[in-house]
Write the structure tokens for this entry.
Amino acid sequence: MIQRESKPGRDYEIMDAVLKRGDAVELARQLSCSPQLIRSWCRAPETDDDFSTGKFGPLARLRTLIAMIKDDDGLPDRAFPIGQYIARQLGGIFIALPTKSSCADSELMNRVSNVLKETGQAIEEVRIAWCENSPGKIEPKEGLVCRNEIDEAIGALVLLRDWLDLKEGM
């Protein structure tokens, strides 16, 4: 069963912010459904205790699918292709964040620093392969190693940014 969200940025609020006036008619035509259904995705979903007229929309359904996978596996990893697909559609990327650790501040910064050094080394290896060893060519293994290091670096930088946000608020 689809659960209601209780935090800011609920799925129906996001749909309301994204869809402009008149979009419901065109989107309904493209999806072969009614404009009323599209508009109902922008209102709080109906429950037993209130009289709201909203319906669970596509974002609520995705959230439920991801929660089901997380419940089944204990981790959301199997749902990562969903995030990657959506990110590609939006011209972005999806990177799974590393698990937050409760390590000491200096340990966190040391970890981020080491990840960035490793990423720099991987990039340098690709540069050498591309420019010197076999100009204009990168072996799939070299590309994979570099992409993995870049993803790890992005995750480490996000952890550092979250740490900064936490420390600034103190």
Observations:
- The CA atoms of residues 127 and 138 lie 9 Å apart.
- The two ends are 39 Å apart (CA to CA).
- The chain is about 65% helix and 0% strand.
- Helices lie at 11-18, 23-31, 35-40, 58-73, 80-89, 105-133, 140-168.
